[in-house]
Design goal:
This protein has about 90 residues and is of the alpha/beta class. The chain contains 2 helices and 3 strands, in the order αβαββ.
């Protein structure tokens, strides 16, 4: 059971709204123990393929490179501020 309010419903809504088929989730270290729980919820509710980024997450400036080569439609990066960026052209 998660101790955080990860606002997963907002993520589910965004995945459905954007019709994303492959989603990458990027979590800060304190939330990484909940990655599997979040992944399962996303997969069950949306049918999307979920990749869990296990590298660093130091904020909006630390976006994983090469996601477009892996076919990622949507990156969900948990942090302290809202950051929206289309994956096109990466």
């Amino acid at each position: 059971m998660m101790l955080y309010d990860a606002e997963v419903q907002k993520v589910l809504d965004k995945i459905k709204e954007s019709n994303a088929k492959t989603v990458c989730i990027q979590l800060p270290d304190g939330m990484k123990p909940y990655a599997k729980e979040i992944e399962e919820k996303i997969r069950e509710e949306t049918g999307a393929r979920v990749l869990i980024w296990l590298g660093s997450n130091f904020g909006a400036c630390d976006i994983p490179l090469g996601l477009n080569k892996m076919g990622v439609d949507l990156l969900v990066s948990w942090g302290h501020n809202i950051f929206h960026k289309k994956m096109e052209g990466w």
